Amino acid sequence: MEIIQSIIGFFIAIGILVTFHEFGHFIVARFFNVTVLNFSIGFGKSIYSKKFPGETTEYSIGAIPLGGYVKMLESQEMDDLDKNDPNFAAEYCFDKQSVYRRFLIVAAGPIFNLILALFFFILVHLSGISGMKPLIESIDGISENVLSYQDNALITKVNNIDTKRWQDVRVETLNGIVRGDQQLKITILKSDGVTQNIEVPIEQSVLKKKGDIIKNIGFVPSKPDFGTTLGSVQSNSPASLAGLQAGDKILAINGQDVSKWSDYVNIVQKNPNNILRLEVDRNQKLFDIILVPSEMKINNKLVGFAGVSPSQGALEKYRINVKYPLIESIHKSVDLTIDYTLLTFKMIFKLFSGQANVANISGPLSIAEFSGKSLAMGYVYFIYLMAVLSISLGVLNLLPIPMLDGGHLVYYTVEMIIGKPVSMRIQLIGQQLGIVVLLSIMVLAFYNDFLRIFSG
Protein backbone atom coordinates (compact mmCIF):
# COMPACT_ATOMS: atom_id res chain seq x y z
CA MET A 1 0.00 0.00 0.00
CA GLU A 2 2.86 2.35 0.86
CA ILE A 3 4.52 1.68 -2.50
CA ILE A 4 1.26 2.38 -4.34
CA GLN A 5 0.85 5.65 -2.43
CA SER A 6 4.41 6.64 -3.36
CA ILE A 7 3.81 5.91 -7.04
CA ILE A 8 0.50 7.78 -7.08
CA GLY A 9 1.96 10.74 -5.17
CA PHE A 10 5.01 10.88 -7.45
CA PHE A 11 3.00 10.94 -10.68
CA ILE A 12 0.52 13.50 -9.32
CA ALA A 13 3.34 15.79 -8.20
CA ILE A 14 5.43 15.44 -11.38
CA GLY A 15 2.33 15.79 -13.58
CA ILE A 16 1.23 19.05 -11.96
CA LEU A 17 4.71 20.59 -11.75
CA VAL A 18 5.73 19.72 -15.31
CA THR A 19 2.36 20.78 -16.75
CA PHE A 20 2.58 24.20 -15.12
CA HIS A 21 6.23 24.58 -16.18
CA GLU A 22 5.40 23.85 -19.82
CA PHE A 23 2.29 26.02 -19.59
CA GLY A 24 4.60 28.92 -18.73
CA HIS A 25 6.52 28.44 -21.99
CA PHE A 26 3.25 27.91 -23.89
CA ILE A 27 1.30 30.93 -22.65
CA VAL A 28 4.16 33.41 -23.15
CA ALA A 29 4.86 32.00 -26.62
CA ARG A 30 1.20 32.46 -27.51
CA PHE A 31 1.30 35.99 -26.04
CA PHE A 32 4.06 36.84 -28.53
CA ASN A 33 2.08 35.14 -31.37
CA VAL A 34 4.56 32.30 -31.74
CA THR A 35 2.93 29.24 -33.31
CA VAL A 36 2.97 26.27 -30.93
CA LEU A 37 2.82 22.95 -32.76
CA ASN A 38 2.61 20.62 -29.77
CA PHE A 39 2.00 20.87 -26.02
CA SER A 40 2.89 17.51 -24.53
CA ILE A 41 2.87 16.18 -21.00
CA GLY A 42 5.18 13.19 -20.95
CA PHE A 43 7.56 11.78 -23.54
CA GLY A 44 7.51 8.90 -25.98
CA LYS A 45 4.56 7.60 -27.95
CA SER A 46 1.41 9.67 -27.58
CA ILE A 47 -1.38 7.83 -25.78
CA TYR A 48 -3.84 10.70 -26.16
CA SER A 49 -3.94 13.75 -28.41
CA LYS A 50 -6.42 16.49 -29.15
CA LYS A 51 -6.47 19.40 -31.57
CA PHE A 52 -9.26 21.92 -31.19
CA PRO A 53 -10.97 23.38 -34.28
CA GLY A 54 -9.22 26.47 -35.63
CA GLU A 55 -6.01 25.81 -33.63
CA THR A 56 -2.59 24.65 -34.80
CA THR A 57 -1.57 23.30 -31.39
CA GLU A 58 -1.89 19.59 -30.72
CA TYR A 59 -2.28 18.73 -27.03
CA SER A 60 -0.97 15.30 -26.13
CA ILE A 61 -0.03 12.96 -23.29
CA GLY A 62 3.09 10.84 -23.72
CA ALA A 63 3.53 7.26 -22.56
CA ILE A 64 6.44 8.22 -20.26
CA PRO A 65 5.03 10.63 -17.64
CA LEU A 66 8.39 12.00 -16.48
CA GLY A 67 8.54 15.36 -18.22
CA GLY A 68 6.99 17.30 -21.02
CA TYR A 69 7.72 19.78 -23.76
CA VAL A 70 6.33 22.60 -25.88
CA LYS A 71 7.27 22.39 -29.55
CA MET A 72 7.24 25.76 -31.28
CA LEU A 73 7.43 26.51 -34.98
CA GLU A 74 10.99 26.86 -36.32
CA SER A 75 11.90 28.40 -39.69
CA GLN A 76 13.71 25.26 -40.93
CA GLU A 77 10.42 23.33 -40.66
CA MET A 78 8.51 25.68 -42.97
CA ASP A 79 9.09 23.60 -46.11
CA ASP A 80 7.38 20.55 -44.57
CA LEU A 81 4.26 22.40 -43.43
CA ASP A 82 1.08 23.56 -45.15
CA LYS A 83 2.02 26.86 -46.78
CA ASN A 84 -1.66 27.80 -47.06
CA ASP A 85 -2.05 27.87 -43.28
CA PRO A 86 -1.67 31.51 -42.17
CA ASN A 87 -0.18 30.38 -38.84
CA PHE A 88 2.83 28.85 -40.63
CA ALA A 89 4.60 32.06 -41.50
CA ALA A 90 8.13 33.25 -40.70
CA GLU A 91 6.85 35.96 -38.37
CA TYR A 92 5.35 33.26 -36.11
CA CYS A 93 8.56 31.18 -35.87
CA PHE A 94 10.30 31.03 -32.49
CA ASP A 95 13.76 31.49 -33.98
CA LYS A 96 12.66 34.60 -35.86
CA GLN A 97 11.58 36.40 -32.68
CA SER A 98 13.81 39.02 -31.08
CA VAL A 99 16.33 37.69 -28.56
CA TYR A 100 14.40 39.43 -25.78
CA ARG A 101 11.18 37.59 -26.67
CA ARG A 102 13.01 34.26 -26.88
CA PHE A 103 14.58 34.96 -23.49
CA LEU A 104 11.17 35.61 -21.91
CA ILE A 105 9.56 32.54 -23.49
CA VAL A 106 12.31 30.23 -22.18
CA ALA A 107 12.47 31.92 -18.76
CA ALA A 108 8.68 31.61 -18.36
CA GLY A 109 8.85 27.88 -17.48
CA PRO A 110 11.00 28.23 -14.35
CA ILE A 111 9.26 31.47 -13.39
CA PHE A 112 5.88 29.74 -13.54
CA ASN A 113 7.25 27.06 -11.21
CA LEU A 114 8.07 29.77 -8.67
CA ILE A 115 4.61 31.28 -9.14
CA LEU A 116 3.05 27.84 -8.57
CA ALA A 117 5.11 27.41 -5.41
CA LEU A 118 3.89 30.79 -4.14
CA PHE A 119 0.28 29.75 -4.82
CA PHE A 120 0.78 26.44 -2.99
CA PHE A 121 2.37 28.16 0.01
CA ILE A 122 -0.58 30.56 0.22
CA LEU A 123 -2.97 27.58 0.27
CA VAL A 124 -0.90 25.97 3.01
CA HIS A 125 -0.86 29.09 5.18
CA LEU A 126 -4.58 29.68 4.67
CA SER A 127 -5.50 26.06 5.42
CA GLY A 128 -3.10 25.72 8.32
CA ILE A 129 -0.28 23.20 8.62
CA SER A 130 0.60 21.38 11.80
CA GLY A 131 4.07 20.50 12.94
CA MET A 132 6.21 19.91 15.97
CA LYS A 133 7.13 22.86 18.16
CA PRO A 134 10.90 23.50 18.23
CA LEU A 135 11.36 22.33 21.82
CA ILE A 136 14.86 21.40 22.93
CA GLU A 137 16.46 19.56 25.82
CA SER A 138 19.96 20.91 25.21
CA ILE A 139 22.40 22.29 22.65
CA ASP A 140 25.88 20.84 22.18
CA GLY A 141 28.54 23.30 23.24
CA ILE A 142 26.17 25.42 25.30
CA SER A 143 26.66 25.53 29.06
CA GLU A 144 24.38 23.21 31.01
CA ASN A 145 23.54 26.14 33.27
CA VAL A 146 21.57 27.66 30.39
CA LEU A 147 19.21 24.72 29.78
CA SER A 148 19.66 22.00 32.39
CA TYR A 149 17.39 23.30 35.13
CA GLN A 150 14.26 23.46 33.01
CA ASP A 151 12.51 21.21 30.55
CA ASN A 152 11.46 21.85 26.96
CA ALA A 153 12.93 25.26 26.11
CA LEU A 154 11.10 26.63 23.04
CA ILE A 155 13.07 28.16 20.17
CA THR A 156 11.05 31.26 19.27
CA LYS A 157 13.50 32.97 16.89
CA VAL A 158 16.53 32.11 14.77
CA ASN A 159 18.53 35.12 13.59
CA ASN A 160 15.58 37.31 14.67
CA ILE A 161 13.13 35.39 12.43
CA ASP A 162 10.07 33.89 14.14
CA THR A 163 10.10 30.07 14.23
CA LYS A 164 6.90 28.20 15.05
CA ARG A 165 7.82 24.73 13.73
CA TRP A 166 11.03 22.73 13.48
CA GLN A 167 10.86 23.27 9.71
CA ASP A 168 11.15 27.03 10.29
CA VAL A 169 14.26 26.42 12.41
CA ARG A 170 15.77 24.24 9.66
CA VAL A 171 15.23 26.85 6.96
CA GLU A 172 16.67 29.73 9.01
CA THR A 173 19.58 27.56 10.17
CA LEU A 174 20.44 26.66 6.58
CA ASN A 175 20.08 30.30 5.56
CA GLY A 176 22.64 31.24 8.21
CA ILE A 177 25.06 28.50 7.19
CA VAL A 178 25.00 29.22 3.45
CA ARG A 179 25.49 32.93 4.21
CA GLY A 180 28.69 31.96 5.94
CA ASP A 181 27.59 32.96 9.45
CA GLN A 182 29.90 31.75 12.21
CA GLN A 183 27.06 31.50 14.72
CA LEU A 184 23.30 31.27 15.00
CA LYS A 185 21.49 33.76 17.15
CA ILE A 186 18.58 31.95 18.72
CA THR A 187 15.97 33.12 21.20
CA ILE A 188 14.55 30.53 23.59
CA LEU A 189 11.57 30.67 25.91
CA LYS A 190 12.21 28.62 29.02
CA SER A 191 9.56 26.71 30.90
CA ASP A 192 9.80 29.26 33.72
CA GLY A 193 8.73 32.02 31.28
CA VAL A 194 12.18 33.59 30.94
CA THR A 195 13.34 34.56 27.44
CA GLN A 196 17.04 34.23 26.68
CA ASN A 197 19.23 34.91 23.64
CA ILE A 198 21.90 32.32 22.87
CA GLU A 199 24.67 32.31 20.27
CA VAL A 200 25.26 28.83 18.86
CA PRO A 201 28.61 28.39 17.07
CA ILE A 202 28.44 26.72 13.65
CA GLU A 203 31.01 25.46 11.19
CA GLN A 204 30.65 25.42 7.40
CA SER A 205 31.81 21.79 7.43
CA VAL A 206 28.44 20.83 8.96
CA LEU A 207 27.02 20.73 5.42
CA LYS A 208 29.32 17.82 4.63
CA LYS A 209 27.61 15.66 7.23
CA LYS A 210 24.75 13.34 6.38
CA GLY A 211 21.37 13.56 8.05
CA ASP A 212 19.28 16.23 9.71
CA ILE A 213 20.98 19.63 9.88
CA ILE A 214 19.30 20.29 13.24
CA LYS A 215 20.99 17.34 14.95
CA ASN A 216 24.26 17.99 13.13
CA ILE A 217 24.34 21.53 14.52
CA GLY A 218 23.95 20.14 18.03
CA PHE A 219 20.29 20.71 18.86
CA VAL A 220 18.81 17.93 20.99
CA PRO A 221 15.03 18.04 20.40
CA SER A 222 12.75 17.26 23.32
CA LYS A 223 11.14 13.84 23.17
CA PRO A 224 7.50 13.40 24.16
CA ASP A 225 7.19 11.51 27.42
CA PHE A 226 4.29 9.15 26.70
CA GLY A 227 2.27 7.63 29.45
CA THR A 228 1.39 3.94 29.59
CA THR A 229 -2.10 4.20 28.10
CA LEU A 230 -2.41 2.05 24.97
CA GLY A 231 -3.34 3.84 21.77
CA SER A 232 -3.58 0.77 19.55
CA VAL A 233 -3.12 -2.99 19.69
CA GLN A 234 -2.02 -4.95 16.60
CA SER A 235 -4.21 -7.85 15.51
CA ASN A 236 -2.85 -11.32 16.33
CA SER A 237 0.01 -9.79 18.32
CA PRO A 238 1.08 -11.07 21.77
CA ALA A 239 -0.76 -8.13 23.35
CA SER A 240 -3.93 -8.89 21.39
CA LEU A 241 -3.80 -12.59 22.32
CA ALA A 242 -3.27 -11.61 25.96
CA GLY A 243 -6.49 -9.57 25.88
CA LEU A 244 -5.06 -6.06 26.00
CA GLN A 245 -7.22 -3.35 24.42
CA ALA A 246 -6.77 0.22 23.21
CA GLY A 247 -7.41 2.56 26.14
CA ASP A 248 -5.92 0.18 28.74
CA LYS A 249 -3.48 1.84 31.13
CA ILE A 250 -0.61 -0.33 32.34
CA LEU A 251 0.08 0.40 36.02
CA ALA A 252 2.66 -2.24 36.90
CA ILE A 253 4.61 -5.18 35.44
CA ASN A 254 5.54 -8.08 37.75
CA GLY A 255 4.78 -5.83 40.71
CA GLN A 256 7.02 -3.03 39.46
CA ASP A 257 5.22 0.30 38.96
CA VAL A 258 5.50 1.82 35.46
CA SER A 259 4.46 5.41 34.74
CA LYS A 260 6.35 6.12 31.51
CA TRP A 261 6.16 4.39 28.15
CA SER A 262 9.94 4.03 28.13
CA ASP A 263 9.70 2.01 31.37
CA TYR A 264 7.20 -0.36 29.74
CA VAL A 265 9.34 -0.72 26.59
CA ASN A 266 12.50 -1.48 28.57
CA ILE A 267 10.84 -4.28 30.51
CA VAL A 268 9.14 -5.86 27.49
CA GLN A 269 12.27 -5.73 25.31
CA LYS A 270 14.34 -7.41 28.01
CA ASN A 271 11.88 -10.29 28.34
CA PRO A 272 11.30 -12.07 25.01
CA ASN A 273 9.34 -15.32 25.57
CA ASN A 274 9.09 -14.64 29.32
CA ILE A 275 5.86 -14.42 31.30
CA LEU A 276 4.96 -10.90 32.42
CA ARG A 277 2.08 -10.14 34.79
CA LEU A 278 0.52 -6.79 33.97
CA GLU A 279 -1.70 -4.77 36.28
CA VAL A 280 -4.07 -2.87 33.98
CA ASP A 281 -6.62 -0.12 34.54
CA ARG A 282 -9.54 -0.49 32.13
CA ASN A 283 -12.37 2.00 32.58
CA GLN A 284 -11.39 2.42 36.28
CA LYS A 285 -11.45 -1.32 36.86
CA LEU A 286 -8.27 -3.26 37.67
CA PHE A 287 -7.31 -6.41 35.73
CA ASP A 288 -4.39 -8.81 35.92
CA ILE A 289 -3.25 -9.82 32.44
CA ILE A 290 -0.55 -12.33 31.49
CA LEU A 291 1.60 -11.17 28.56
CA VAL A 292 4.31 -13.24 26.83
CA PRO A 293 6.30 -11.01 24.44
CA SER A 294 7.49 -12.63 21.24
CA GLU A 295 10.96 -12.22 19.73
CA MET A 296 11.95 -9.47 17.32
CA LYS A 297 15.39 -8.65 15.92
CA ILE A 298 16.45 -4.99 16.18
CA ASN A 299 20.01 -4.05 15.22
CA ASN A 300 20.97 -7.74 15.23
CA LYS A 301 19.70 -8.14 18.78
CA LEU A 302 16.71 -10.20 19.90
CA VAL A 303 14.25 -8.16 21.95
CA GLY A 304 10.75 -8.66 23.27
CA PHE A 305 7.81 -7.46 21.18
CA ALA A 306 4.16 -7.09 22.29
CA GLY A 307 2.54 -5.22 19.37
CA VAL A 308 1.15 -2.12 21.05
CA SER A 309 1.69 1.62 20.67
CA PRO A 310 1.04 4.43 23.16
CA SER A 311 -1.80 6.90 23.10
CA GLN A 312 -0.78 9.98 21.11
CA GLY A 313 -2.38 12.38 23.59
CA ALA A 314 1.06 13.30 24.97
CA LEU A 315 1.99 14.69 21.56
CA GLU A 316 -0.59 17.46 21.70
CA LYS A 317 1.56 19.79 23.78
CA TYR A 318 4.37 19.28 21.26
CA ARG A 319 2.23 20.03 18.20
CA ILE A 320 1.30 23.38 16.73
CA ASN A 321 -0.99 24.36 13.88
CA VAL A 322 0.27 27.36 11.92
CA LYS A 323 -2.45 29.31 10.11
CA TYR A 324 -2.67 32.91 8.87
CA PRO A 325 -5.35 35.22 7.39
CA LEU A 326 -5.22 36.01 3.65
CA ILE A 327 -2.97 39.11 3.63
CA GLU A 328 -0.49 37.64 6.10
CA SER A 329 -0.56 34.31 4.20
CA ILE A 330 0.46 36.09 1.01
CA HIS A 331 3.23 37.99 2.82
CA LYS A 332 4.54 34.84 4.52
CA SER A 333 4.34 32.86 1.28
CA VAL A 334 6.28 35.48 -0.70
CA ASP A 335 9.02 35.45 1.97
CA LEU A 336 9.09 31.65 2.07
CA THR A 337 9.26 31.34 -1.74
CA ILE A 338 12.17 33.81 -1.86
CA ASP A 339 13.92 32.03 1.04
CA TYR A 340 13.60 28.58 -0.53
CA THR A 341 14.66 29.86 -3.97
CA LEU A 342 17.80 31.59 -2.72
CA LEU A 343 18.57 28.71 -0.38
CA THR A 344 18.29 26.20 -3.23
CA PHE A 345 20.65 28.23 -5.43
CA LYS A 346 23.16 28.57 -2.60
CA MET A 347 22.99 24.89 -1.67
CA ILE A 348 23.55 23.86 -5.30
CA PHE A 349 26.63 26.11 -5.36
CA LYS A 350 27.85 24.52 -2.12
CA LEU A 351 27.35 21.04 -3.60
CA PHE A 352 29.19 21.78 -6.84
CA SER A 353 32.02 23.56 -5.00
CA GLY A 354 32.53 20.62 -2.64
CA GLN A 355 31.35 22.50 0.46
CA ALA A 356 28.33 20.22 1.02
CA ASN A 357 27.83 16.46 1.07
CA VAL A 358 26.71 15.15 -2.33
CA ALA A 359 25.13 12.21 -0.48
CA ASN A 360 22.28 14.59 0.35
CA ILE A 361 21.28 14.82 -3.34
CA SER A 362 17.99 12.97 -3.77
CA GLY A 363 16.54 11.39 -6.88
CA PRO A 364 13.16 10.20 -8.16
CA LEU A 365 12.93 7.35 -5.64
CA SER A 366 13.26 9.73 -2.70
CA ILE A 367 10.77 12.13 -4.29
CA ALA A 368 8.33 9.25 -4.73
CA GLU A 369 8.79 8.20 -1.10
CA PHE A 370 8.29 11.74 0.22
CA SER A 371 5.28 12.21 -2.08
CA GLY A 372 3.64 9.04 -0.80
CA LYS A 373 4.24 9.91 2.84
CA SER A 374 3.00 13.49 2.49
CA LEU A 375 -0.07 12.30 0.58
CA ALA A 376 -0.86 9.90 3.43
CA MET A 377 -0.46 12.72 5.98
CA GLY A 378 -3.02 14.94 4.23
CA TYR A 379 -3.40 17.30 1.31
CA VAL A 380 -1.77 20.26 3.12
CA TYR A 381 1.51 18.36 3.58
CA PHE A 382 1.36 17.19 -0.05
CA ILE A 383 0.82 20.77 -1.27
CA TYR A 384 3.71 21.97 0.88
CA LEU A 385 5.97 19.29 -0.62
CA MET A 386 4.87 20.25 -4.15
CA ALA A 387 5.69 23.89 -3.39
CA VAL A 388 9.23 22.92 -2.40
CA LEU A 389 9.58 20.58 -5.41
CA SER A 390 8.26 23.29 -7.74
CA ILE A 391 10.96 25.66 -6.51
CA SER A 392 13.57 22.94 -6.95
CA LEU A 393 12.39 22.27 -10.51
CA GLY A 394 12.39 25.99 -11.33
CA VAL A 395 15.86 26.56 -9.89
CA LEU A 396 17.27 23.42 -11.54
CA ASN A 397 16.04 24.60 -14.93
CA LEU A 398 17.64 28.01 -14.39
CA LEU A 399 21.11 26.52 -13.92
CA PRO A 400 23.48 27.55 -16.74
CA ILE A 401 23.70 24.01 -18.11
CA PRO A 402 23.11 23.44 -21.85
CA MET A 403 20.00 21.29 -22.41
CA LEU A 404 18.26 23.15 -19.57
CA ASP A 405 16.37 26.45 -19.84
CA GLY A 406 19.21 28.16 -18.02
CA GLY A 407 21.68 27.07 -20.71
CA HIS A 408 19.55 28.68 -23.43
CA LEU A 409 19.23 31.83 -21.33
CA VAL A 410 23.03 32.05 -21.20
CA TYR A 411 23.17 31.87 -25.00
CA TYR A 412 20.53 34.60 -25.30
CA THR A 413 22.36 36.79 -22.80
CA VAL A 414 25.56 36.46 -24.84
CA GLU A 415 23.57 37.29 -27.97
CA MET A 416 22.25 40.44 -26.31
CA ILE A 417 25.81 41.48 -25.45
CA ILE A 418 27.61 40.69 -28.73
CA GLY A 419 24.69 41.40 -31.04
CA LYS A 420 24.59 38.03 -32.81
CA PRO A 421 23.59 34.44 -31.95
CA VAL A 422 26.08 32.01 -30.44
CA SER A 423 27.50 29.80 -33.19
CA MET A 424 25.93 26.38 -33.74
CA ARG A 425 29.32 24.75 -33.15
CA ILE A 426 29.55 26.18 -29.65
CA GLN A 427 25.92 25.27 -28.97
CA LEU A 428 26.54 21.66 -30.04
CA ILE A 429 29.61 21.38 -27.83
CA GLY A 430 27.61 22.87 -24.95
CA GLN A 431 24.79 20.41 -25.62
CA GLN A 432 27.19 17.47 -25.34
CA LEU A 433 28.67 18.82 -22.12
CA GLY A 434 25.17 19.41 -20.78
CA ILE A 435 24.19 15.79 -21.44
CA VAL A 436 27.27 14.58 -19.55
CA VAL A 437 26.55 16.87 -16.57
CA LEU A 438 22.87 15.93 -16.39
CA LEU A 439 23.57 12.20 -16.69
CA SER A 440 26.19 12.48 -13.93
CA ILE A 441 23.71 14.20 -11.64
CA MET A 442 21.04 11.60 -12.42
CA VAL A 443 23.42 8.69 -11.76
CA LEU A 444 24.51 10.25 -8.47
CA ALA A 445 20.90 10.87 -7.41
CA PHE A 446 19.86 7.29 -8.22
CA TYR A 447 22.96 5.95 -6.46
CA ASN A 448 22.10 7.93 -3.31
CA ASP A 449 18.50 6.71 -3.46
CA PHE A 450 19.48 3.05 -3.77
CA LEU A 451 22.16 3.39 -1.11
CA ARG A 452 19.70 4.96 1.32
CA ILE A 453 16.95 2.41 0.61
CA PHE A 454 19.09 -0.75 0.78
CA SER A 455 21.23 0.41 3.71
CA GLY A 456 18.07 1.34 5.62
Gross geometry? elongated
Query: What is the straight-line distance between the termini?
Result: 19 Å
Encode the helix/strand succession as letters.
HEEHEEHEEHEEHEEHEEHEEEEEEHHHHH
Estimated radius of gyration = 28 Å
Strand composition percent? 15-25%
Which structural class matches the secondary elements? alpha+beta
Q: How many separate helices?
A: 12
Enumerate the spans where pLDDT stays under 50 for 5 or more consecutive residues: none
Helicity, in percent? Answer: 40-55%
The main pleated sheet reads as:
6 strands, antiparallel
Average pLDDT number: 84
Number of beta strands: 18
Structural notes for this entry:
- The protein is an alpha+beta fold and 456 residues long.
- It is built from 12 helices and 18 strands.
- The protein has helices at 2-31, 99-127, 144-147, 166-179, 213-217, 238-242, 261-269, 326-352, 364-377, 379-398, 405-418, 424-455, and strands spanning 36-50, 58-72, 129-132, 135-139, 153-158, 161-162, 183-189, 195-201, 219-221, 230-233, 249-253, 256-257, 276-282, 285-291, 294-298, 301-305, 308-310, 319-322.
- Strands 4, 5, 6, 7, 8 and 9 form a 6-stranded antiparallel β-sheet that branches. Strands 12-11-13-14 form a 4-stranded antiparallel β-sheet.
- Strand 15 (294-298) and strand 16 (301-305) form a beta hairpin.
- Helix 1 (2-31) packs across helix 10 (379-398).
- The longest helix has 32 residues, at 424-455.
- It starts with a helix and ends with a helix.
- The model has no long low-confidence stretch (mean pLDDT 84).
